[in-house]
Amino acid sequence: MADAKLAFVALLVLFPLALLALLALIVRPRPVKIPLKNRHVFITGGSSGIGLALAHMAAAAEGARVSILARSLDKLEEARNSIRLATGIEAAIYAADVRDFDAVKKAVDAAGPIDVLIVNQGIFVPGELENQDLSEVRFMIDVNLMGSFNVVKAALPGMKSRSDRRPVSIALMSSQAGQVGVYGYTAYSASKFGLRGMAEALQHEVIADDIHVSLIFPPDTETPGLAEESKKRPPLTSIIAASSGAMKAEEVARKCFDGIKVGNFFVPCNFEGAMLAIATAGLAPQRSSFMAFVEVTLMGLMRLVALFFQWNWYGSIAKYASKNK
Question: Transmembrane residues, as ranges (predicted)?
Fold first, then answer.
């Protein structure tokens, strides 16, 4: 009996250690450090919200050279003034619509070689697909997904041919709605889920050039855009989205840079996002053998938790539908 207990205890100890040792051998890409000080950080959607918070933080806390791109020159000038007043650093500004590849390419070429590209622009028009005009659907996909292709394609040649051979980063701003579909987010989720496929394949294509891709998953964030969007949300969207609280733009910016600097592929911004990242890890790259261990051991449990969330959401939908028939 004592031998059996000893063997059981040994198994409990040795199996996790053996799994950790195996994961340390197979996780790819390898861990990396991406320095930001005195390097060029280029941020799209940089005139407000998360983008502006990222620009402030890149300049003040990270000591980077900052460029921001957005559609409105007036808003860009306001953003540049706020960065100057807060940090004493002069950000470069570029007015371009990310849907226009030629305009984006012109801005990127003028900005010079980019070390950290943060593709942050985003549009969200909430609504059930049945009630949504296809022009709104197309607008979200064009800005959120095709706009990201335009920005990355414009920046890649310079990033690949850089003279500074230290590692560099491309960060794509997805959303927790890019981890799980939510009522009223049909078009938005499609555009943000698309970024994951883009990011996974792109990482394969650029890893040999020491370019590291990050996919960021902010929840609702306290920005002017959220205030406007909340007025238009279907009631069920607000009920379901209430399970994940809103964050401040500065908090999201800090989480972004924490993930970018160590080359994390998934960059969740709160507890719910971290749980979703484990539950949806799939075939995503993973640099950390410890996080790979967490994913392997907890994925089944996270699936159970996810089913409870789905039970709650579908219950809310059924209750709402029965009241409004």
Answer: 290-309
Q: What is the CA radius of gyration of the chain?
A: 21
Q: What percent of the chain clears pLDDT 90, i.e. is strictly above it?
A: 81
DSSP string covering 247-307, please?
EEHHHHHHHHHHHHHTT-SEEE-SHHHHHHHHHT-TT-----HHHHHHHHHHHHHHHHHHH
DSSP code for 184: T
Does residue 67 sit in helix, strand or coil?
strand
**pLDDT tens column, 168-214:** 999 999 999 999 999 999 999 999 999 999 999 999 999 999 999 99
Q: What is the residue-wise DSSP string for 101-145? A: HHHHHHHHHHH---SEEEE---------GGGS-HHHHHHHHIIII
Q: What pLDDT digit, counting tens, does each position of 300-312 carry?
A: 999 999 999 999 9
- For the stretch 73-80, contacts whose Cβ atoms lie closer than 8 Å and that sit 24 or more positions apart, written own/partner, are 75/47, 75/48, 76/46, 76/47, 78/47, 79/46, 79/47, 79/48, 79/52, 79/55
User: Any idea which residues carry the catalytic annotation?
Assistant: 174, 188, 192
CA distance 228 to 230: 6
